[in-house]
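Protein folding task:
====================
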Amino acid sequence: GDDHSGYGQPCERWHSRYTVEAIILSVMCMLSDPNTESVANDEAAEEYCEDLEAYKRRIIKCAEKSFDE
C-alpha cells in the first residue's frame, strides 16, 4: 500500500503475500541479531552490548512477569 508517512521504501512495505511464517521468522531473526546501531531503548542496547548474560536474565524476568499479569 501507499506510505503516507514517507518512511519506508516500496519493497519494505506490507504485502498480502507475506505469510505468518515469514513474519515470525523475520521477528525471530531481529530478536536473535538486533541492530545496535539504531536502537529504541538505549539502556537495553547498552546492556546487550556490554553484558549479554545480564541482558538475557532481564529479558527472561520481563517475559515471566508479563505472563503473570
Summary: The chain has one domain: 10-68. The chain has a mean pLDDT of 85. The chain is about 55% helix and 0% strand. Residues 52-68 form the longest helix (17 residues).
